[in-house]
Design brief:
Layout lengths: L1 H27 L17 H8 L5 E7 L8 H21 L3 E6 L6 H9 L3 E3 L6 E10 L4 E4 L10 H13 L5 E6 L6 E2 L6 E2 L3 H9 L1 E4 L13 E5 L6 H12 L3 E5 L10 H5 L13 H4 L2 E3 L3 E5 L3 E4 L8 E10 L15 E5 L4 E3 L6 E7 L4 E5 L24 E11 L15 E10 L11 E6 L2 E6 L3 H13 L2 H4 L12 H36 L12 H28 L1 H39 L1
Parallel strand pairs: 1-2, 6-9, 6-10, 10-11, 11-21
Antiparallel strand pairs: 1-4, 3-4, 4-5, 7-8, 12-17, 13-19, 14-15, 15-16, 18-20, 20-21, 22-23
Helix pairs in contact: 6-10, 12-13
Amino acid sequence: MKRLMYSGTGLLVLLLAFVAFNMASNTLLPGARIDLTEQKLYTISDGTREILTGLEEPVTLYFFFSDSASKDMVVLRNYARRVEELLQEYERVAGDKIDLQIIDPQPFSEAEDRAAEFGLQAIPLPQSGEKLYFGLAGSNTLGEREVIPFFALEQEGLLEYELSRLINSLAQPEKAQVGLISGLPLSGGMNPMTGQPAAPWVVFEQIRQLFEVNNLQHDITEVPADIDVLMLVHPKALTEQALNAVDQFVLRGGKLLAFIDPLAEADQSQEAMMDAMADGKSSDLSPLLSNWGVSFDAEKVVLDARLGMSVGRGQGQLPARHIGWLEIEQAQINQDDTVTAPLSLLTVATAGALAPIEGAQTQFTPLFSSTANSALIASSAFTGMQDPEVLLDGFQPDQDTYHLAARLQGPAVSAYPEGFDGSKPAIQSAENINVMVIADTDLLTDRMWVQVQDFFGERVPQPWADNGGLVINALDNLSGSEALISVRSRGDSTRPFTVVENLQRAAERRYRASEQRLQQQLAETEQRLAELQQGQDPSQMVEMSAEQQDAVQRFLDEKLAIRKQLRDVRFQLNADIEQLGTWLKVINIALVPALLTLGILLWWLIRRLRRKSA
């Protein structure tokens, strides 16, 4: 009885201690948490933390998720839970500067009307006819709004970046200022070939919708202070003083997006038309690039036999493969950088190669590259070329991968330490620069990524590649704060069952040959059976000879036997996976509790033996 009282008192004390510990931890350590995921999915980056702690005005976030309509969508609900938990972490870090409201927009409710008012996309569910909302809207004290219409599962790696970008946009509501210096007619103008006015390029129209564009001259002596991002397109006409101005802009913290090219096929300037060689269509940023740790040969074009595009030769002729025009696939695109992670296809024409200089202080991060089935060729090889397949004659890949675009960050010094006119430059060095360089300008042209159709006088672009998205993503990223630029793409919370996938592939290889053999036998048996029965009236089957009836019956039996074997083979495809599932259940349900029980018994036995020996 005394032992029972002691045991009951001990259990009560343990229970009270457990409750007291939970209460104390919630009060004293409200923000304490441990992220045990491999890629730290629930730990916000330093850049996001800087954005949140630097908020000066409150931001209201409205997270819309149709909880009741998605009750049968397990994967979507798990992702929604991750979004909600990450938003709650944002709210915790920002303190009273973020007001998070979680809303389940029921059908025909005011909440549903508000979601539609914000511009959120609703997906109709075919089974129930309900609308599924899964998006985010935000507003600031000025009444300005930013939305994420729908959280796509395939974009989970960009979740933190998109949330941070939305909040950063609300904190800085004015349009970013983009300074543009272009050697190509992005804004349209007069076509020198036809003498007719040309429409603005689609990419330029998209830039004007999202940013404030300021056209700058090629001979500027200083980049205006209000420019957030300087965009250089085919800057072959920049003067030395203009290059110095660009250098000083970058060193003082300005962001640069530069498009250079060893052979700009879209260059129809008078200088390019008069110069019969390809040199008249090349552009470079020397000596700035070399000073930033990048080498670039303005006379070499990247060829890639693996990524070469198929181009038309004219009516009645078969298409040709152009290994100087490349379709950059997702495998060659950096999935860790927030600018390129959402992209799946990029197209370039006669692009150049960027490479890091050994020993450079800057960090060189490739954005997209060629495959190893590539080589460099002189740009002069394209002069007067009529058939692009001549590039395949004698082509020998050098097994090197060439980077077509890169992000440059890190410490840098001035390329013009002596300055001009006897005056020293205002800034000699910087601890960190932010530059993106793309070694092609033709990717900006409409023909390389978009088809424009006329719809009742309106130009309707229909993109078939992500070139426009690349430019907008780059400007959007660079126009943000240093903190936003530092936010990287993250992993997915859904982890693949790699063991199960390997078992499934092995089972398919093991049983596919048997299945194909049985399928062939079944087809042959059915064909022979059809030949025997061809022309026979079912009512006259009794007139068949005994041998014919035996043959028919034999083939029928063989057909049933083969079908049974085929079912067995298909069943065996999943047998290994089911066996693995059974073992996991045994381990979770029986083995783990048994091991814990055995450990407790051993601990109790050891203590008992020690007491006796004492």
